[in-house]
Amino acid sequence: MAFNAISSKSGKSYVLHAREQTLRGGHTTTLYYFAGKATELAIDAVPAGYYVSEAKTGLPVLKKTK
């Protein structure tokens, strides 16, 4: 089951996704994002070292722990 975050402003549910992106130098990095519907890129849990926060607009965002 994919990880869901619910907006406190709108009450909408957002699903956490992750994908691999190759950068110009050839390195790969993982991009995390929230979307309204689950796809095959949806993940089950928040990655280690991150936590879910909410932007002023009500959209969920991932932030790194300090």
What attributes characterize this protein structure?
5 strands; 47% strand; 66 residues
Describe, in plain words, how this protein is organized in 3D.
The protein is mostly beta strands. It has one domain. Strand 2 and strand 3 form a beta hairpin. The mean pLDDT is 95.
Structural class: mainly beta
Q: Separation of termini?
A: 28 Å
The whole-number mean of residue pLDDT values reads 95
* Total domains: 1
Indicate the percent of residues in helices: under 10%
Major sheet: arrangement of strands:
1-2-3
Shape estimate: globular
User: For the CA atoms, what is the radius of gyration?
Assistant: 13 Å
Catalogue the unreliable spans: none
Strand residues, percent: over 45%
Please report the total strand number as a whole number.
Answer: 5
Number of helices: 0
* Biggest pleated-sheet summary: 3 strands, antiparallel
Order of helices and strands: EEEEE
